Amino acid sequence: MFWGFCEALNFIQQYQKKLSADESLPESLNILLFGSGDPRHILATASQLFLHPGLKVNVYLAEGCIELLARHMVLLAVAFEDPELLSLKGKTHLFMDLFGNNLIRPFSSAYLSSKAKELTDIITDAEYAQRQAPMFNYETLRYKERDQLENVFRFWTNAPEHVFNIARYWEDRLRVQLGERYDHRNGAFDWDLQMRLRENGAKQVCPQEYKHWRETGIAFTFPEYEQSDPNKTFAVGLVRNGKGFLHRGSVGDNMTGPYIAFGHKCAEERLSRSKHGVNDFRSTDVTERNVLQIVYEIQNRKPYCFDPKDIHQYGAHQLDAGKNLNKHEARTESADAIHYNKPLLRCENLTIHFLSVEDVLRMHEMERFAGKFDVVFVASNYLGLVKDGFNRTWKENCLVCFETRQLTVFSKEEIKEHTDKIKAFAQKESLAAATNFSINKNHSILLYKRADNK
Fold first, then answer.
1. Which of 21, 108, 203, 244 is most enclosed, with most CB atoms within 10 A?
2. How many whole angstroms separate alpha carbon 406 and alpha carbon 370?
């Protein structure tokens, strides 16, 4: 729910691959992210936009939960934050903290609280939004949904009434999920990792980081940091209750983890080296490298040159993560807290359109989406929401991308069943495969092209 199960894709690059030698990129690309869960594809695409100054990219975000739209906003804000407020390394670790950790650093909590106030002003004042974050377009959101977003941002601010004891919710859910196996959970975690996740292809994930995440919900750890505050971006189903809020506790994935999006592959093969099954680098370290590249290229508008000194190397180390100082009382801010209210970095040729939650179910019948999209991405858990007539939203020559369940803890039978559903849908719609199925390889994403005469 809060992250995807395929690698971050640069959709400009993917679209170019399907063009013939005599074809060139159009003046604009309209990209639909149907339930992507996180902004990984937006960031991977945005980081390379400096290579295409004449190309206009419109990304349309369709999510079935208003809290996910809010989470998209704050994660994108981190990546596009003014460099006077955050260094590249600061952005990288802040992003990883909010993206994948149940408990976050006090600094991350203070940032989230401050940014929530800024995002409230952005969502409630169109003129202010145009000055501060012109890439955000929320015109299609209903007023009720804007009020809901405002409530989400209010809950993110640090106040005594805004309690979210994610550590307790996580443990309670784990006890129910494992039942009698809870007392032997370390062995259950190891089986899920070795016999499912790594067997399915996610070999970069290391035992120590995966088991720590399954136990605590903290995926990304570094020895210099200590996580103590609840990550309120994981709260969904928020409803006002006096001065406080009701919510659904801990939901979303608690078996695969947030490692695939940025921590599965990278350009340097040496980061994937292992000896006797022990990796030189954790998935956390690879995530650090890939997120650092993204924020560097967004900020500097030039290619990133990898330096091993930029990242950690803890693949073979069992880090002493220490006790997680989960605070049962909400943090309150001091009067001299930093305010993160500078305008976000400009990206003139990128606009992110936040679609109404209701559009997820009605998109196929809405006239304003007819023949709209050059690229469509469908998340694995949204395949069942694809209705007859969904192809009306595609342009001719549309690139259609389906996320599989390959890099998850699903069984091989479940993965194959889901992949077969994708292939059956593609056959029904007369889509031509852009993925090379003849290669003996498991795919986390399947790419198809719409035929010219369709």
1. 108
2. 31
